[in-house]
Amino acid sequence: MPSGMIRYWAAAKAAAGVTEERYEAHTLAEALDHARERHAGRPDFARVLPRCSFLVDGSPVGKRDHRLVRLTEGGTVEVLPPFAGGSR
Fold first, then answer.
1. Which residues contact 36 (CB under 8 A, 6 or more apart)?
2. Rounded to an integer, what distance in angstroms lies between the CA atom of residue 74 and that of residue 5?
3. Distance between CA atoms of 25 and 20, rounded to whole angstroms?
4. 61: β partners
5. How confident is the model at residue 87 (pLDDT cuts 50, 70, 90)?
6. Can you tell me whether residue 28 is helix, strand or coil?
7. Which of 27, 38, 58, 79 is 20 to 30 A from 64 (CA-CA)?
8. Is 10 left (phi over 0), alpha (psi -120 to 50) or beta?
9. In angstroms, rounded to a whole number, what is the distance separating the alpha carbons of residues 5 and 22?
10. 7-32: b or e for each residue (b if 16 or more CB lie within 10 Å)?
11. What is the pLDDT of residue 83?
């Protein structure tokens, strides 16, 4: 199973309580499901995550189905909440 890093930014970092953590997952959907389980005791995490945009290995995920976004060994998932003045 591929493993890599999830990096949280701004409000997502505050909600997760960590800057980054490892993933072990084949798809973005699996990695985010595991992250939701790890942070189940942090209600802000569940509220912030659906509003976030994601980069996988530097490429925007956009509106693609997270179940179809494959993760790589040693890859990086960036979790980016909406920023002031910007849009998703």
1. 45, 46, 49
2. 7
3. 15
4. none
5. very low
6. helix
7. 38
8. left
9. 4
10. bbbebbbebbeeebbebebebbebbb
11. 76
Q: Tokens representing 40?
A: 């189940």
Q: What are 34-63's pLDDT values in tens digits? A: 999 999 999 999 999 999 999 999 999 999
Own/partner contacts of 68-72, CB < 8 Å, gap of 24 or more, are: 68/27, 69/27, 69/28, 69/29, 70/26, 70/27, 71/2, 71/4, 71/23, 71/25, 71/26, 71/27, 71/28, 71/30, 71/31, 72/2, 72/4
Three-class secondary structure of residue 3 per DSSP? strand
The length of the chain is: 88
- Token pair of 1, please? 């199973």
| Residue 43, amino acid | P
